[in-house]
Amino acid sequence: MIKLIKQIGSLLFLVGNTLTAIGCIGLVLVLIGVIDAEFLAIGISSGIRVIGSVAISGCLLSAIGYGVVEYFEK
Fold first, then answer.
1. How far is the C-alpha of 35 from the C-alpha of 67, rounded, in Å?
2. Which residues have CB under 8 Å from 18's CB, separation 6+?
3. Backbone angles phi, psi at 53, to 5 degrees
4. What pLDDT does residue 15 have?
5. 29 and 40 in contact (C-beta within 8 Å)?
6. Is 52 helix (H, G, I), strand (E, B) or coil?
7. C-alpha of 44 from chain center
8. C-alpha distances in angstroms, 3 versus 7, 8, 48, 65?
């Protein structure tokens, strides 16, 4: 059971790190003008906010994953 929880934690921080990297790369590409942020606008949210939300959710998933793995390694 603990091994399964560690694997889920590892998956969480892998997905989280990937989302963080995608979000940061997206923000850089918007800032240098390679892609248009308005393409990703949803409702009243700007495209920058959507890309930033991806990066922030990735950070949160990574923190949860690292916390789970660290907790069960004790």
1. 35
2. 58
3. -65, -35
4. 96
5. no
6. helix
7. 22
8. 6, 9, 38, 14
Q: What is the pLDDT of residue 2?
A: 82
Which of helix, strand or coil describes residue 45?
A: strand
pLDDT tens digit sequence for 42-65: 888 788 898 999 999 999 999 999
Q: CA nearest 61: which of 18, 1, 2?
A: 18
- Give, as one character, the DSSP assignment of residue 27: H
Please give the Cα distance from 8 to 25 (Å, whole number).
26
pLDDT tens profile 11-37? 999 999 999 999 999 999 999 999 988
Q: Where are the alpha helices (DSSP H) in the chain?
A: 2-31, 47-73
